Amino acid sequence: MRRWLGDHSLSLSFAFLFIVALAGQSVAGHSSYNSERSMHGLSALGYFRYLRTGNFLDGMFTNWQAALLQLGCLIVFGEKFREKGAAHSLKPKGERHRQKRDDGKRRPWLYRHSLSLAFVALFTLAFVAHLFFGTMDYDAQLQMIHRSPIGAGDYAVSSAFWFSNTNTWEAEFAAIAIYVILSVFLRQQGSPESKPVDSRNSDTGETND
Q: Which region, left, alpha or beta, applies to residue 187 given φ > 0 means left and ψ of -120 to 50 means alpha?
């Protein structure tokens, strides 16, 4: 059991942090949502009923689709583009050595691109969920001010929907750009996300083993 925990400690650590953050979101969101309802003269919702509202579910899927888009773009762009000196980048054309292996070309196309395809599928699911639950949340807000709800089609072309998308996307893209640039100049000893401490800034794609 100890060996298994050690072998999977990275994913387990992030799973634990995810659960803690999700619990925090649900508790804080429940309190904030009931405060908003009270300002409109509405009764408070119970905690478990709140977990089924568009307010909670849309908040969750808004962030999920943005994070999945970020990682999917990093995977796909990393196949085509370069950043000289960055830890996770293809080497500049003049510095690339010919691969001795066939790079898996005998494998089926689906398998060779399975990672990016998985992120495309996950992003699509999260984006659709964000649209569905975002419509629920938006309609609930309209009802609080005694206005008629709108459908998912109208919400999909609304400024509110695209505002929620673009403000999360910009943060994800900025975080990746900052990481790529800082990995050229900065190091983290022992981390596979960093170049070796003694490597030069111009060394590209030389992460710690």
A: beta
Provide Rg for the chain, Cα atoms: 22
Cα 75 to Cα 24, 78, 89: the distances in Å are 30, 5, 10
Q: 152, 74 in Cβ contact below 8 A?
A: no
Residue range 161-177: mean pLDDT, rounded:
94
- The string of pLDDT tens digits covering residues 19-39 is 999 999 999 999 999 999 999
- How many Å apart are CA 130 and CA 142, to the nearest integer? 18
Nearest to 136 by CA among 80, 68, 60, 42: 60
What residue ranges do the domains of the chain occupy? 1-52, 53-209
